[in-house]
User: Fold Lysozyme from Laceyella tengchongensis.
Amino acid sequence: MRPYLRYILILIAFVLLLALAAALEYFGIIWHNDLFAWPYQVKGLDVSHHQGDIDWHMVRAEHDFRFVFIKATEGQDFIDKRFKENWREAKKQGLLVGAYHFFSMQSLGARQANNFIRTVPKEPDSLPPVIDVEIHLNHDRRKVHRELLVLSQRLEQHYGQKPILYVTYDTYGQYIESSFPTHPIWIRDIKKFPTLDRNWLFWQYSNRGRIQGIDTYVDINAYHGELDEFLQHFTTAK
Assistant:
């Protein structure tokens, strides 16, 4: 075989392999961040009504997930239609459950807290409440701080745990970094290992997980610590 033909065949094979890898990642069969998240023992999901009807028995039976965060509320009056079912069925399968609230600047923090408290039960061995901060970056920082602080304080007072703040790099830098220095952080980074100027507690490393028991893509997360730390942190089991 002539040398240039060999080089052409090698190039074609390389391009095909790249295309195959891209297709496998696009469809959630593999995910490059799995490599970075591999050292973390404790993995879990976050879900909402977008995942539809979830077979929690299959999720638990086929995968070694330990926890799930479930969307409960948004703003002052939205309640996720799948919340109660997901909370009940995930707990039934032995998963540690927590609820998250999608923060809005369209309503007062106090009213958003009331919506969450009315919806999410106060139960032992539940994960701390989560406030999902994915608002636009053009809001007045002082107003965001005021409403978010009221919401956070109300939830901490009711549930006895400081809320976790779910953030992107943008919302963290704009609203959270200097204003909420002691809150646990759940960082979204689906491209690489997290790079924050403080420790994170949870890391959402994939938004295209393919999980038996769930018909759609689903977010996958890692806990920053060992299994015994996780149990000590969040449960009464020692």
